[in-house]
Amino acid sequence: MKTNPGRFFEDYRVGDTIHHAVPRTVSGGERALYHTLYPARHALYSSDEFARACGLPASPLDDLAAFHVVFGKTVPDVSLNAVANLGYAEGRFLQPVYPGDTLRSVSEVIGLKQNSNGKTGVVWVRTTGLNQKGEAVMSYVRWVMVRKRDADAPAPDTVVPDLKPHLDAADLTIPAGLDFSDYDFALAGEPHRWGDYAVGETIDHVDGVTIEEAEHMMATRLWQNTAKVHFDLTFRPEGRLIYGGHVISLARTLSFNGLANAQMIAGLNAGAHANPCFAGDTVKAWSEVLDRAETANPSVGALRLRLVATKGGAPFDLRGADGKYQPDVLLDLDYWALVPR
Amino acid sequence: MKTNPGRFFEDYRVGDTIHHAVPRTVSGGERALYHTLYPARHALYSSDEFARACGLPASPLDDLAAFHVVFGKTVPDVSLNAVANLGYAEGRFLQPVYPGDTLRSVSEVIGLKQNSNGKTGVVWVRTTGLNQKGEAVMSYVRWVMVRKRDADAPAPDTVVPDLKPHLDAADLTIPAGLDFSDYDFALAGEPHRWGDYAVGETIDHVDGVTIEEAEHMMATRLWQNTAKVHFDLTFRPEGRLIYGGHVISLARTLSFNGLANAQMIAGLNAGAHANPCFAGDTVKAWSEVLDRAETANPSVGALRLRLVATKGGAPFDLRGADGKYQPDVLLDLDYWALVPR
Amino acid sequence: MKTNPGRFFEDYRVGDTIHHAVPRTVSGGERALYHTLYPARHALYSSDEFARACGLPASPLDDLAAFHVVFGKTVPDVSLNAVANLGYAEGRFLQPVYPGDTLRSVSEVIGLKQNSNGKTGVVWVRTTGLNQKGEAVMSYVRWVMVRKRDADAPAPDTVVPDLKPHLDAADLTIPAGLDFSDYDFALAGEPHRWGDYAVGETIDHVDGVTIEEAEHMMATRLWQNTAKVHFDLTFRPEGRLIYGGHVISLARTLSFNGLANAQMIAGLNAGAHANPCFAGDTVKAWSEVLDRAETANPSVGALRLRLVATKGGAPFDLRGADGKYQPDVLLDLDYWALVPR
Asked: Which Pfam family, an example, fits this chain (chains A, B, C) (predicted)?
């Protein structure tokens, strides 16, 4: 058989390295499309002039666009037979990606644990996105529940990786040259500096977007993520499942309204897709400031933020009395952003 | 509160200058997207070779795409609490915008008039789009009806700006270097020169486009216009309102069929969004030649055109016996185009 | 009348040359949009680095994207009054198209045959796509059934061109510099070489895409194909007809799964749009290896492939007992692809 059946749980070995296929050169086209598919307004990713005034050579591709490109390549090898995308950890954005860069992805299998039902197991991979110079532009850990091909196949030794519950500010990489000393708050859209945000503060980002089928499919294809659950209504007559990353990008771009100066994503601490998202849902977002830290760069502060996407329901209502996510919660993301001090 | 509540009527003062946020660098991506979202075929905006043969350094971004970029930036400061977009005047296209240019917008408040109900008022702004060299690429006057935050706030002195009912041909800027002497009518798609159009002549542009939700939202986001009326079906359960500029671009690009040589927009005299537009509407367009003028450039003539977009109904039927726009009329736009003589 | 009524059957003369309007410069924007509208993953068209490792100066625009650009220009002159798109033959891809190239199209009328009903006739044209240097980048023959303006107009002499039932491998142009000697199969996504495919082998490409209205309209506009049957629901209340080329691109990109190394299209032998396609259809694809041939380039083999798109039904079921296409078959395409040996 020449088509790709995807890997099953017993196809992974701890220590395996997977070189994912289909490298991609990004251009101004990907940037324009990101701004077409999401309400993206962070000035650093919109204007070459603004980016240069912040010490960068040009406006980079949005961090999450780069993430989606790197992630999309892993789908045929990691999640084609996945039952669930369980989590993210230790996501580090190591350098910006610019138009003209070519990205590819490599994953190392760092953990395996068969489930007690014997039919599925959890696979942990650490994925690294590399540019054309072979330099890492990001890395992150992701774990997914994968079906076994053969329920009778023996269970592998359990290896659960030791992952940080969240990155520390000292783990973050500040892009070379980044300098917010002359940051133009008027052009950026809001006056709030790093010091204006308090731990525990919550922000309702107010705006909402009702999702259309064409939009999420176009976005998902742009990242060359071709998992059929997102595209084929005969495969999922109950509705095409929206790629979780689409919700992440919607929530992040909606968060401009209140976090316009949380310009760059430097770390991805954790993420849960709490409930599935479908076309017709109206996505809104709220944030909570989880932590604040200075960085080695005197012009740059770091904010650790919880970003929550919902499809209705009141803001700031994350979990019920039973500790479970409210049914309207789509995403609970924990990340570090770089903000002018 | 860190999110932007928008400005209310009493937040404007005549003489105020507003520097709008989020500058944007445009690329071939924006051009390709404009041609994806609209049936755009004017050769000058499609081919670098054709543009060079007309004396320009390369194919510019479509004039209306540049307009939407400049306009989109003003939304958070001007029309977030607008009840209605009332009109445009004195729109001047001062120089073409090219891939690589970075645009930003500045508005001056030039008029204020509280309405007799005491709850709303009209705000006039003159907006200028600037490129990375600080040169003006366009300017236009727009007036909107804006809610008051507090109905008891005192009315400002009424200042109604003295606006030209329309620009004269002498007010138009012909782009430096533009030369239609060797214009290739076959490649442009139609044989009609400036002299072939008569004042009073009407043209039914024949073609129609039935609008989808995904299309107008993608277009509107591309211009970073994130007003929630266009995106959030929970905010407007009766239907997402389509950005008026989407209708302008649809009508202008549909007008290629009959006005293929009306290459460049040089002036925007007036514009009214006569009725709201929703997904499912089929937009068609017709034009009327309002005036003709020579320009200082012997190869370039100017046509003053009325461009009307409809969603059904017969062409050329603009107003009823009561003088009001017919219910099928979406747009009544008055502009100057540059045409080979 | 200034709008284009399109040509009718009696407007064509054998030997006529038609210079089609609206040249187009392509950029990274068109490439990104192709990857947004189709599940395109062939590595040569995704990565400049991969393309350079194959001896090309950069990643070209997808062959079918270039085809659609060339084809789109012919619509106003060839198929505006067409009743049916009858076939393709002798399609040669002569050189890759790169971002920055400007394409235009020229057609020669090579055949005419009035139908016995006297109301329509068949027109054969050979269309050539040219770049800014005047070099041919592709050529193909297409024939369409076109309405007569006047049923009483006399029939022209019948001229039916002598067309090859399919190109031979020796007719194919291998792009200058193309070298698959160091081809990276891991990055390309599949291990199968030219020699791994056997004549008669069939491949079910498994994946499917349910089409949305916004997607096919955006794609069709991108190629500046503005035939109203694709856009205007008031013109076709029974449903907007999807541009046949949209189905070709969907099928070709879905065929990545099993034919990831069928990198370049070198020849188009024949093609039939067996049944119309509408939004809501779920398109799947299967292929059959029709022939194999070496080429003058020792690193490059050629596969002649049948590519079939369906909207349901079992794979490999092309025609019924009556010899007619099954009602679920959308496309039957016969092409040559270049594959690493």
From this structure: MC_hydratase
